[in-house]
UniProtKB/TrEMBL annotation:
Top-level taxonomic group: Bacteria
Source species of the chain: Streptomyces canarius
This protein's name: Haloacid dehalogenase
Coiled-coil region(s): none
InterPro entries: HAD-like_hydrolase_sf, HAD-like_sf, HAD-SF_hydro_IA, HAD_sf, PGP-like_dom2
Length: 218
């Protein structure tokens, strides 16, 4: 039976989390909001609307949401041509593909941003499908992105492993019923990832690749 390796992208395969922190912080600052960078960092991994709601609260002026998201997109877009893949990212995906795993991305990115991320990873030959923000109604920590990735792969949750770098990833994967692996390269502490559902935690894709045989992806 087929099996699926589902991957988050930002902070898991591409080293972008702190770029998101800086550009979201600037977008909030331009709109007159003082949001600490550490708070933004903890919210990275949520979709744009959910991130704004998480940081500004339900009593915010919701008419600003679209402008804040557009400002972040414009600021972050300046880096599209030089987004850095994390160590071992492409090699890990190609190894899993060669080992018979169906590799699927599950990300809150879409459009030009997703294209830039895939160029950074440089492993399109190993990626079978992508579940993007355009494909789901609710983003992480809802299970829908992971569930959609499983649908694309054509496998049940029992035949899948999800790799991510945030508590939102771990919660989404756990709710979808898949085994979850965490990576530390997004900047979230090991204890937080484990508490949110990570079965095992690795430093980065290169570390997971080096220890693949003893992992749930082995």
């Amino acid at each position: 039976m087929d099996r699926a390796a589902v991957f988050d992208v930002d902070g898991t395969l591409v080293d972008t989390n702190h770029l998101h922190v800086a550009t979201w912080w600037e977008a909030f600052r331009q709109a007159g909001h003082e949001v600490p960078m550490h708070a933004v960092h903890r919210a990275v991994g949520l979709g744009s609307t959910d991130l704004v709601a998480h940081l500004l609260g339900d009593d915010r002026d919701r008419d600003q949401d679209a402008a804040l998201s557009a400002a972040h997109t414009a600021l972050y877009g300046q880096y599209f041509d030089r987004l850095p893949a994390l160590p071992g990212a492409g090699e890990l995906l190609r190894r899993l593909h060669g080992d018979g795993w169906t590799v699927v991305l599950a990300t809150s990115a879409s459009g030009a941003e997703l294209g830039a991320l895939r160029r950074a990873i440089d492993a399109d030959d190993a990626i079978a499908a992508t579940a993007s923000a355009d494909d789901v109604r609710e983003g992480k920590p809802a299970p829908e992105p992971v569930e959609h990735a499983l649908e694309l792969a054509g496998v049940p949750a029992s035949r899948a492993v999800f790799v991510g770098d945030t508590v939102w990833d771990m919660r989404a994967g756990s709710k979808a019923g898949v085994r979850c692996l965490g990576v530390l390269c997004g900047g979230i502490p090991r204890a937080d990832l484990e508490e949110a559902g990570a079965e095992a935690v690795y430093a980065d894709p290169a570390d997971l690749l080096a220890r693949l045989a003893g992992s749930p992806l082995g």
